[in-house]
Amino acid sequence: MSQKVICAGCDEAYWNESRLRCTACGIPLPAARTVRRQQRARSTPYRCADCMAAPPPFDATFALADYRPPLDTLARGLKFSARLALAGEFARRLARIANDTLEPAEWPDVITAVPLSRKRLVTRGYNQAWEMAKPLAKLLDVRSDARLVARVAHTAPQSQLDLEARRHNLQHAFALAKSVEGLHVGVVDDVMTSGATLEAVARLLKDAGARRVTNFVALRTPKN
Fold first, then answer.
1. What CDD domains has UniProt attached to this entry (predicted)?
2. pLDDT of the residue at 153
């Protein structure tokens, strides 16, 4: 990132690593497979075993890097310490991936963010995912909409729950405010762990007629 946030050595070692990721959920694939196929990764729809066995409701996920030191401290700084400049840097890097991977015609029609509940938004004062979504949409020259998806239930923090509990925790947590019929929707979040939150949002969008759902996340945990 910038010199004020992370040194050039860490930037090269962590942000720019050549990792083949599942095109659906963004999880890193085995290293041997990465070495063999990294030259064709951008044009080939590689999927992990979980996504092949049970395809998620979203269609694609772009992730900048794994959620691990030292980058995890950046995500926590954005989320809990209002280091909002990080949101713009994450957005610039995600836009670069979109530019390198997709043709402009394949970019989302609208970009939104995983919403916070009203209670959590009031407590924190900002939604870190939306702080990323705004500049990402501007860089891609597509429409952004903070209110497209609303969080209608205040739920327990996902970090405290296992995968099944996370999914149950999010049942009926979200609602749509506008039509998404036939649209390609980009959904932004800071960290993707189990994928349960993004699954819940994508399922809501797909059930309402969205044509495609693409996730844009800063960091992805290496394992579910």
1. PRTases_typeI (cd06223)
2. 82
